[in-house]
Design a protein that fits this description.
five-stranded mixed β-sheet; DNA repair; DNA damage; hydrolase; Uracil-DNA_glycosylase-like
């Protein structure tokens, strides 16, 4: 892959709390093509393929997850596994059309560990997240969403800083620059992993409430 270009001056206005040194140029199809051959960290080696974001190039809202799962790794599309199905149900309950949103992840490759034949999700470390941040920054610069929602702790801390905690700050809007606001909520996979049914039900209900907030904000934006 060709070297990335230095971050443009307006990159300083990106709704990201963590630094981005260089940002690949190009429109979304070009970025998607370039990301396929990214070798900025070791995660590309065991992964099947890069899982880039999907959605309208001028989407008003961007939902940012953490990293692809096994089914996303196989298909090359974000949020198509069990967590994606749960997100689809929550979006439907909140009155949001997935096709109108841009969905992506903080990290674009599936990191996992083998357990027999199973590939179990393993969280990307800080250096892997930092290496992949240029792609998220490029997506944000190209799409220029008015609203950004972080799904899960990794995305939330990328947006708001390492001190952010989902358990105490989810669902709270923050200004993230000129005409951009953001919030964070539960990642659907975190909801699915909760061992107690009552806790899962409560977290899912909170996810829907937060997505309804998103729907309300989007309805109030100028066309």
């Amino acid at each position: 892959m060709k070297a990335a270009t230095p971050a443009p001056a307006h990159a300083a206005r990106l709704p990201l709390a963590k630094p981005v040194g260089e940002i690949p140029p190009g429109k979304l199809p070009t970025l998607r093509r370039k990301a396929k051959t990214c070798r900025a960290c070791p995660l590309w080696r065991p992964a099947t393929q890069t899982v880039f974001g999907e959605g309208p190039a001028a989407a008003k809202a961007m939902l940012i997850g953490e990293q692809p799962g096994s089914q996303e790794d196989q298909s090359g599309k974000p949020f198509v596994g069990p967590a994606g199905h749960l997100l689809d149900r929550a979006l439907d309950e909140a009155g949001l059309d997935r096709q109108a949103l841009y969905l992506t992840n903080t990290v674009k490759h599936f990191k996992y560990e083998r357990r027999g034949k199973a590939r179990l999700h393993k969280r990307a470390n800080a250096s892997e997240q930092a290496a992949c941040r240029m792609w998220l920054a490029a997506e944000l610069l190209r799409v220029q969403p008015r609203v950004v929602v972080g799904l899960g702790a990794m995305a939330a801390q990328t947006l708001f800083g390492n001190s952010f905690r989902i358990t105490r700050e989810r669902g709270q809007w923050r200004e993230l620059g000129e005409e951009v606001r953001g919030m964070a909520t539960w990642h659907p996979s975190a909801v699915l992993r909760m061992p107690e049914a009552t806790r899962r039900d409560r977290a899912y209900a909170e996810l829907v409430v937060d997505l309804r907030q998103l729907a309300t904000v989007l309805a109030g934006l100028e066309p």
